[in-house]
């Protein structure tokens, strides 16, 4: 884990008088999480003091400085343009459902005519952390990091929905760097993600190819955020939401529909189909992925492990779905293999390993994912091999633990009968089997 620390400080907490005969909403985060009554003592309630845990209260509405307050008095309209500060609470959704994308398109003014959005000092502190740290920790390459740092930031300054995506990913990054503040910053990240998703929906309703690049930037940031909070970073938080069991979450109940929904929307833009022509478009592309067509026969010993899976679904009614999924996995593996050795990289290219891994969701046939969520053995085994590929990304903070957890969940779901079929992913992630460990999936 990085040793970087954030300059973002806790926001001011404003005590709000409670109305009689109503449930208190001002308890600390830990008491809310455990659904127990909070004594609401500050800086530390009795329950947290007794349990020896950090007591944190949700930040309230951003308190403006006297200077900004004075300016607002001179400009009444400014009150309606400020953004609200997130209020972390127990029941938030790190990844909302797709209703914001599936609702009928709404009519809004062109983006260039909308009122300017004002961000608070706390939000600008998050943006500073993005500029100095988060943007540089996405690609493990200095030249690419500078493109991400400058290009993504410029897009964020032009489009509030991209800014909200930047803030959501940054808050998640701070939660990763500061485990003791994880609950607070994941709640903040969820707030900004929801705001960004609303803005994304309004942007796509414009049907304007001129903002396609910013839509792609938002999608890339959203992808990293979704994987980040769906994994270990949001583990204890997600279990209390409508995500089902831990197994459901690891099997992609949250992130797969989100990714497929976004891809469907973006495919309607002409720019999404055209070759990259700018540095920013180049960084968002997946290089020669579509040119890679795996042969029917295995090309090496590791590929042989993949191809042997065909005998599992030989007489299965869904054989063609599983075969196409296998080919998608092999395509991703061959693509990622290009960057396993420095000598194999093109002089003008860069390491796109994690992009290749993410591409699997878009490459696999859509009919595969219902079979996965039904926990059909062939679908689970293929997913375990996907986990083996993801394990190579464990040094990326937003992917930490994903590969291992996928293989662990599949191994526990399948049982000993299928053990030999997942030997490769089990070895790839160095799975530590505990026969005495009973987990409900």
UniProtKB/TrEMBL annotation:
Keyword terms of this UniProt record: Nucleus
PROSITE patterns attached to this UniProt entry: ZN2_CY6_FUNGAL_1, ZN2_CY6_FUNGAL_2
Region (Disordered): 1-26, 61-84
PANTHER family in UniProt: STEROL REGULATORY ELEMENT-BINDING PROTEIN ECM22
Recorded superkingdom: Eukaryota
Protein name stated in the entry: Zn(2)-C6 fungal-type domain-containing protein
Skewed-composition ranges (Low complexity): 74-84
Biased amino acid composition, Polar residues: 1-13
GO molecular function, one term: DNA-binding transcription factor activity, RNA polymerase II-specific
Ranges where the Zn(2)-C6 fungal-type domain occurs: 27-57
Nucleus among keywords: yes
